[in-house]
Design a protein that fits this description.
By secondary structure, the protein is α+β, with helices and mostly antiparallel strands. It has two helices and two strands. It has a two-stranded antiparallel sheet. The N and C termini lie close together (about 10 Å).
Length: about 70
């Protein structure tokens, strides 16, 4: 987590706030799922992060594997 500029507890606080606001869900360990359709694609477009998870075909799911979950 240090490579991302924040400690694990800091990411946990951010994660909890996003869950409380209803913007994300945590369907499994290490996985975040956006609750708003197409929001994952918006985040990828704005941040320039390359998506390496499921859905590399024509439709991108609302899941961004690899983002901090805790």
């Amino acid at each position: 987590m240090a490579a991302l500029g924040r400690s694990t507890p800091q990411w946990g606080t951010i994660r909890r706030a996003l869950i409380d606001k209803g913007l994300i869900e945590a369907p499994g360990y290490g996985v975040l799922q956006f609750t708003m359709p197409t929001f994952a694609q918006f985040v990828l477009d704005v941040t320039g992060i390359e998506h390496h998870g499921p859905g590399r075909g024509s439709a991108l799911p609302n899941v961004l594997p690899g983002l901090p979950a805790a």
